[in-house]
């Protein structure tokens, strides 16, 4: 209970502090690397408060100088934090537009350049993804997408949506499949108490979208999903780092 109270207090204070930094930075027109640094610091603060350790593998094998789209499974709220502290270049998450409504966090999220998708407007969503692709090609960094669209409540991945793969094909972005385990155990069922937990993140070998077209995006999606499913099947269940 003490860990949970401490974690939520830290969440509120860290969000207010770092969110305010981003809003001030946007008024001063500071450049993207600053927002990347703030995002990492915010994520590290929350992971520390929750007692979670992140072990990332395969980071050094990725060519982060290329324009990349990181495609990861989604099992818990701490997935975003684990990715944020592990990716060594400026990154932009793609998520549902509803996040913009969260006080302080929402405006900061938008000012930092992350991409909000309106799922009710397909054409607008496509334009937003195209904008993301152009930004990465011109400025460098990575786009991060959870292709399931929402968190899985089981050990199986939900069906994928095609947006990430269309982005890779049309934008010429290298696909970096990634799988995460352990983060689903941070929050317990029912009342969301916080449990310290080891989180493991694996960046898998890069995949070029060359040779695929918008008409064959389903084939690319199936190929990436197969790679991720195989990687998840090869990982033993992540044990609890600490209970109670």
Explain briefly what this protein structure is.
This protein has 244 residues and is α/β, with parallel strands linked by helices.
Overview of this protein structure:
- It contains seven helices and seven strands; from the N terminus they run ααββαβαβαβαββα.
- It is globular.
- It is an alpha/beta fold and 244 residues long.
Largest beta sheet: what is the strand line-up?
Answer: 1-7-6-2-5-3-4
Q: What is the total tally of β strands?
A: 7
Structural class: alpha/beta
How many domains would you count in the coordinates? 1
CATH topology tier name: Glycerol-3-phosphate (1)-acyltransferase
Features:
7 helices; 244 residues; 7-stranded mixed beta sheet; 15% strand; Glycerol-3-phosphate (1)-acyltransferase
Can you lay out the helices and strands and say which pair or pack?
Blueprint: H1 2-27, H2 32-50, E1 53-57, E2 68-72, H3 79-86, E3 91-96, H4 105-111, E4 115-117, H5 122-139, E5 142-145, H6 163-171, E6 174-181, E7 198-203, H7 217-233
Parallel strand pairs: 1-7, 2-5, 2-6, 3-4, 3-5
Antiparallel strand pairs: 6-7
Helix pairs in contact: 1-2, 1-4, 2-3, 5-6
């Amino acid at each position: 209970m003490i860990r949970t109270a401490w974690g939520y207090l830290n969440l509120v204070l860290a969000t207010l502090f770092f969110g305010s930094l981003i809003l001030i930075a946007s008024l001063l027109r500071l450049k993207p690397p600053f927002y990347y640094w703030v995002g990492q610091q915010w994520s590290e603060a929350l992971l520390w408060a929750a007692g979670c350790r992140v072990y990332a593998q395969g980071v050094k094998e990725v060519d982060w100088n290329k324009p990349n789209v990181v495609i990861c499974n989604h099992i818990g709220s701490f997935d975003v934090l684990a990715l944020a502290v592990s990716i060594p270049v400026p990154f932009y998450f793609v998520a549902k537009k509803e996040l913009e409504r969260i006080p302080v966090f929402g405006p900061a999220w938008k000012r930092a350049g992350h991409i909000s998708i309106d799922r009710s407007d397909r054409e607008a969503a496509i334009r937003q993804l195209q904008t993301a692709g152009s930004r990465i090609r011109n400025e460098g960094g990575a786009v991060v997408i959870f292709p399931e669209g929402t968190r899985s409540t089981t050990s199986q991945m939900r069906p994928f949506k095609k947006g990430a793969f269309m982005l890779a094909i049309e934008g010429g972005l290298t696909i970096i499949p990634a799988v995460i385990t352990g983060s689903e155990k941070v929050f317990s069922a029912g009342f969301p108490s916080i449990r310290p937990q080891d989180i493991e993140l694996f960046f898998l070998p890069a995949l070029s979208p060359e040779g695929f077209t918008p008409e064959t995006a389903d084939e690319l999606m199936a190929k990436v999903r197969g790679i991720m499913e195989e990687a998840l099947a090869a990982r033993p269940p992540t044990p609890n780092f600490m209970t109670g």
